[in-house]
Amino acid sequence: MAGISDQDSPGEEEHERQEESCSQCGLCCKVFGDRIYPTHENLYTWISSGRKEILRHFSACRADGKWTRCTELTPDEIGGIRAIEMRDPETGEYPPVCPFLRRVGKARYTCSIHAEKPDMCRSYMPWVFGETYFPRCRALEKKEGESQWSRIR
Q1: DSSP states of 56-89 as a string?
Q2: Residues 31 and 106 in one domain
Q3: Exposed (0-12), middle (13-18) or buried (19+): which is 88, by Cβ within 10 Å?
Q4: pTM of the model
Q5: Contact 100, 112 (CB under 8 A)
Q6: What's the rounded Cα separation, in Å, for the pair 46 and 118?
Q7: Burial class (CB in 10 A: 0-12, 13-18, 19+), 21
Q8: 111 by DSSP, 3-state: which?
Q9: Residues 6+ away with beta carbon under 8 Å from 35
Q10: 47 lies in which domain range?
Q11: Do residue 105 and residue 44 come from a single domain?
């Protein structure tokens, strides 16, 4: 909409409020970090920006069924990608935790690619019941009573 900046949008305000609720324990990134699937838009941004340090952790399946490292893709090839998976760049195996998770305190973690993290990480809200609900989230303890779903734990 004209006249409304991204900062003024309700979605951004809600996202900021939810980020403030996060205790940054890193548990969700440890548990689900090996299942990060970036979007085609994420790939395009990383390729265009030359973010090989991010791309090296992902492999893509082309339309012909062949897998390739995302560092070898060009922006023109992204439309032909059928699947994207996180893989250990050294072994090709699935990583045990997100490789972008960094410990910054005794019990505090942060994302080393926060500004460029995949959309699924950006929109993850473990306290929302349904697809993203994560009952082991430590932030849920702080939110106890705020959500209609808190009583089902």
Answers
A1: TTEEEEETTS-EEEGGG--GGGGGGEEEEEE--T
A2: yes
A3: middle
A4: 0.74
A5: yes
A6: 10
A7: middle
A8: strand
A9: 86
A10: 24-117
A11: yes
CB 137 within 8 A of CB 54: no
- Alpha-carbon distance of 24 to 103, in angstroms, equals 10
State pLDDT tens for residues 80-137. Answer: 999 999 999 999 999 988 999 999 999 899 999 999 999 988 888 776 655 666 777 7
Position 17 in a domain:
no
Centroid of chain to Cα 66: 25
- The vertex-70 CA angle with 19 and 45, nearest 5°, equals 50
Read off the DSSP letter of residue 80.
Answer: G
The helices-and-strands tally (H runs, E runs) of the chain is 6, 5
**pLDDT per position as a tens digit, 8-45:** 333 445 444 445 578 888 888 888 877 889 999 999 99
Q: How many domains does the chain have?
A: 2
